[in-house]
Design goal:
This protein has 2 domains: 3-97 and 215-260, Rossmann fold (3-Layer(aba) Sandwich), CATH 3.40.50; 102-213, Rossmann fold, CATH 3.40.50.1860. 44% of the residues lie in helices and 16% in strands. It contains 11 helices and 9 strands. Helix 1 (18-27) crosses helix 10 (215-228), helix 1 packs across helix 11 (249-260) and helix 2 packs across helix 3. It is globular, with a radius of gyration of 18 Å. The two termini are 35 Å apart. The mean pLDDT is 97. The structure holds D-glutamic acid.
C-alpha cells in the first residue's frame, strides 16, 4: 500500500466518534479510514483520568501498528486526558483531538444575539472526566467575562447512547431532568461525541437554544493537518471505511449503522 493510501485512524471510547467520522468522510471521501471504538471499555467519561490515558495509549499503539498515517481522537474525554502525552510520544504523527466547541457559541452570543455584556448563557454538556480536567478549566477561562458558561456533567448519558437505542424514554427523561432548569439558555455545546446522535431531543427541550458540536471543526482540522504533512490520498476513488470494535462484531455493525443513519 502506498504511504498516502494508509488509513486515517479515528478513535473513540465507543460509538460517539462516528459523529466525527461522518464529517470527515464527507470532507475527504477519497480517504481510507479505520474507525476504532473501545466499546468493551466504554464509558471512559466516568473512569479515572489515569485509566483513560492508559486505555488510549494502548489503543493508539495498536492503531499505529496497523499502519495509520494520522490519528483523530474523536473523543473529548480521551483528548482532555491523553492528547498532550500522545503528541509527545509520536511527534511526527498528525494527531487531531476534539474539544467542546465553546468558541463558536461565545461568538454566536456576541455577534448574532448582540449580547456583548457577557450575558449570553452557554450550557456545556460533557462527561464528568472532561469537565474535571485542567484543560477544560483553561478553555472556559479563555472566555472569562464574554459569556456565562455553565458546565453540565452528564454521567451515564454516553452509556445510554452506546446501547444504540437513541430514542429511548430513559434518554428523553434524562435530558428533560438535566436541561429543563436551563430553558433560558442561548446555546448548548455538545462536549461529548456521543451527544450529536441525540441532538434532536435536546432541540425539542430547548427550542430557543442553538446547538454547537465540534465534529465539523475537528474533521476540517484533520484534513488540513494531513495535507500539511503531504499525506493526503491522491486517489480519485472513494475511500474504504472499516469499522472495528474492541467489543464484538455486532457493535462494529452498529457503528456502521450510525454512520449511515439519517439524523
Ligand atoms: N465520546 C466520548 C467523548 O467525546 C466519551 C464517552 C464515554 O464516556 O466513553 O467524551
Amino acid at each position: 500500500m502506498k504511504d498516502n493510501e494508509r488509513p486515517i485512524a479515528v478513535f473513540d471510547s465507543g460509538i460517539g466518534g462516528v459523529s466525527v467520522l461522518r464529517e470527515l468522510a464527507a470532507l475527504a471521501p477519497n480517504e481510507n479510514i479505520l474507525y476504532y471504538g473501545d466499546s468493551e471499555n466504554a464509558p471512559y467519561g466516568e473512569k479515572s483520568p489515569e485509566l483513560v490515558r492508559e486505555l488510549t495509549f494502548s489503543n493508539v499503539e495498536n492503531l499505529l501498528r496497523i499502519g495509520a498515517k494520522a490519528l483523530v481522537v474523536a473523543c473529548n474525554t480521551a483528548t482532555s486526558a491523553a492528547v498532550r502525552d500522545l503528541r509527545g510520544m509520536y511527534p511526527t504523527l498528525p494527531i487531531v483531538g476534539i474539544e467542546p466547541a465553546i468558541k463558536p457559541a461565545v461568538i454566536y452570543g456576541e455577534q448574532t444575539l448582540s449580547k456583548t455584556d457577557g450575558s449570553s448563557k452557554i450550557i456545556v454538556m460533557a462527561t464528568p472526566v472532561t469537565i474535571s480536567q485542567a484543560k477544560f478549566a483553561r478553555l472556559i477561562g479563555e472566555y472569562e467575562g464574554r459569556a456565562e458558561i455553565i458546565p453540565l456533567p452528564c454521567p451515564r448519558l454516553a452509556e445510554m447512547i452506546e446501547t444504540g437505542d437513541i430514542n429511548s424514554t430513559e434518554i428523553k427523561e434524562y435530558l428533560k431532568n438535566c436541561l429543563v432548569p436551563f430553558l433560558d439558555a442561548d446555546s448548548v455545546v455538545l462536549g461529548c461525541t456521543h451527544y450529536p446522535f441525540i441532538r434532536r431531543h435536546i432541540e425539542e427541550i430547548l427550542p430557543g437554544a442553538k446547538i454547537f458540536d465540534g465534529g465539523f471543526g475537528t474533521a476540517k482540522e484533520a484534513v488540513r493537518r494531513i495535507k500539511e504533512a503531504g499525506l493526503e490520498n491522491r486517489s480519485t476513488q472513494k475511500g474504504n471505511i472499516e469499522f472495528v470494535s474492541s467489543k464484538d462484531k455486532k457493535m462494529s455493525e452498529l457503528y456502521r449503522r450510525f454512520f449511515e443513519m439519517e439524523l
